[in-house]
Amino acid sequence: MDPSFSTQTIQKVDTKKVKEMLNRRKGKMKRFLSHCAHCSLCAESCFLYMKHRKDPHYMPSYKVINSLGKLYRKRGKVDWKFLNEIKGIVWRNCVLCGRCYCPIGIHVPSMIAFTRSILRSQGVYPQRNEISAESWL
Amino acid sequence: MLDFIQGPLVSISIVVFILGLLFQVFQFFRLTRKKEWGNPPLPQPMKPEKKTIGQQIASWLSALNGTLWKTDPVLTVVTSVFHILLIITPLFLLGHNTLIRLSCGWSLFSLPESLSDGLTLIVLICGAYFLGRRLFLARVKAITTAYDYIMLLIAIAPFLTGFFAYHQWFDYETVILLHILTGELMLISIPFTKLGHMLFFFLYRFFIGGEYSFLRGSRSWSW
Ligand code: HEM
Ligand code: HEM
Ligand code: SF4
Ligand code: SF4
Predict the structure, then answer these.
(1) How large is the ipTM?
(2) Does the beta-carbon distance from B223 to A39 stay under 8 Å?
(3) Model confidence, pTM
């Protein structure tokens, strides 16, 4: 992981709050996660995937499976380290441009945005010195 | 046990399949609501230009460039064929319709058996193609877990065992039992697993408004 992404001091995660947030939108989010055919057809619609020489880590489905998907699988029982691990996925690896196309109709940006708000609720978000130092392309 | 698989479980699986889908439709409408805001008025449609037949065909073909046909033509063909046959083959199958007529007194018409058999083979080939992608394509591998292989197997197994049964390969009694069991498994799992995309494809892309929806979208998620 990029070292500049983990410069904050360790904090305690309010797992109850995380769980509450996950539960509130699980009807939509868990269905999206469950109906993903894991087919990778969304890959080429993401410019970040294309610009990173088709690195699978930038595939829209990869990003939600490994951020929001993991949060649901762990039922919100996560620690500060974990939230910081997925921070890069939802802020750096996706810019929420909304261009990803899924034939089944899974709306990836809303899932990434939701993950961001969960992280933000726990004080995990890009620090001032991080984002501007990032070069995407 | 055998009697159960060949008797009541057939009806149970069909009932679970239908009620499961209805339950999911109900849940979908509970989780979404009618859009509160009106859609902005669309500009008046322009008078279509007169096109020659050649231009018309060219414009249809160029519209395909905006679809997956452009990025992955092979998969586009394979998945279209796979999904169409997945529905059509079992529905218009003599073996099935004979059984359905015996129990309901009525059934759909059937395709010739040799045709159905050929279509079954095509489904199996498409299944092999999906398996190959999963095994060898880096980007598919990156999001594949054991669950994906199991679901692919559940989708393909009725066709594989049906094919074996028709050709009387291996012990017929065992194969047809497996066929019925895998068929039931598939029906039961559709409403509750990733195969639920059969229903949700239509709900997501026709009812929810968005950049890629087929219609303007009359509903949005409540949460
Ligand atoms: C659930 C109860 C089911 C029963 C009782 C059943 C029964 C049968 C029977 C009796 C045959 C004829 C075998 C022969 O010709 O000797 C058959 C063939 C076949 N079944 Fe089913 N089936 C069931 C479910 C399914 C499902 C869910 C599918 C697929 C989605 C399916 C796909 C097929 C196919 C493709 C064949 C024909 C294979 C060929 O001709 O090459 N079946 N089935
Ligand atoms: C009737 C409406 C359906 C639609 C619109 C639909 C649409 C799709 C789409 C867009 C994909 C992703 C592209 C691909 O990998 O091929 C897909 C994958 C898949 N579908 Fe469907 N589907 C439908 C029904 C079904 C049914 C009834 C089944 C099986 C019971 C099924 C089994 C599968 C499987 C196994 C895959 C994944 C293939 C893989 O492993 O890569 N689909 N479907
Ligand atoms: S998000 Fe859609 S296109 Fe992407 S892998 Fe999942 S089902 Fe396929
Ligand atoms: S919203 Fe995110 S995942 Fe979708 S195309 Fe844009 S950067 Fe890629």
Answers:
(1) 0.86
(2) no
(3) 0.88
